[in-house]
């Protein structure tokens, strides 16, 4: 058994993979294994995985047909030997002290999970960093037990990314915690399963230890039709059910869930703005109507208030959705997308 298994799903990221692997190999903590799961790559990434494994005995490679990040991570979990598990995406990187700092915290707090922060950065299509963004850090420090976690639930959340965490492998195995086979939202499914399980403690580190890349045509900056599927909506509904079931008192987190519903509607609009020019306008409007008709989304949009939504621009969009002025709401987000493209050109992020 090694101390940490690092699982990296790999799919057509040949230009990014060497830097990612170098960041894991360069960890100050040396007792690790790096599992590269080639998810049916067609750009030579699979062959590159094999070449990198020849340079370091700690690297293990698994080749499989394409099945998405969730399935690839599950396959990595199946063969992992580490006491703890870490996930890194192939176009991202870890700071040199990430694993050592998280492992120290896990052992000091006897935690089943350690949560840490990340630094965002824009990278171009060749993997070169063109601009640094801010840091996203946990609100909490130290650790909380399960009861305190659910008492303070809104403050415990940092992101739905599985990568900014370290997990005790035995706990994941005991409770069958794994990723969903869907091609979007698999991180949220995994974390929601963890939160619903009887964990002992979760620890927090207010340090940006993970380097998260925003790049052209990634899943975070491009249209993904899966976001509008009923299966993905079922994952979101499962999250609401878990939160309500674990709330310290009935209704304790209803305002939080309303805000979350509205945020998902804003994300739907952003996704559709990415699709401008790729998907006909009539189809974009049909997808938006379908999304807003889902019971949880409709419930949240109907219940939201100016105080809950926050910013003026988000409230304007929420009002348009309340009134079912879908064309206007989409036009507003299309305008924001135009501004984003102009900004990207100025910083040469292409």
Structure explained in plain terms:
The chain has helices at about 15-25, 45-55, 70-80, 100-110, 145-150, 155, 170-175, 185-195, 230-245, 255-275, 280-295, 295-305, 305-310, 310-320, 325-345; strands spanning about 5-10, 30-40, 60-65, 85, 95, 115-125, 130-135, 140-145, 165-170, 200-215. With about 350 residues, the protein is α/β, with parallel strands linked by helices. Strands 1, 2, 3, 4, 5, 6, 7, 8, 9 and 10 form a ten-stranded mixed sheet that branches. α8 (about 185-195) runs parallel beside α9. The longest helix is centred in the C-terminal third of the chain and has 21 residues, at about 255-275. The radius of gyration is 21 Å and the shape is globular.
Uncertain runs with pLDDT below 50, 5 residues or more?
A: none
The proportion of residues forming helix, as a percent range, comes to 40-55%
Number of helices: 15
What gross morphology would you assign?
globular
Number of strands: 10
Proportion of residues in β-strands: 15-25%
Q: What gap, in angstroms, lies between the N and C termini?
A: 43 Å
Q: What integer value in Å does the Rg equal? A: 21 Å
Arithmetic mean of pLDDT: 92
What structural class do helix, strand and pairing data support?
A: alpha/beta
Largest sheet: 10 strands, mixed
In N-to-C order, the SSE pattern is: EHEHEHEEHEEEHHEHHEHHHHHHH
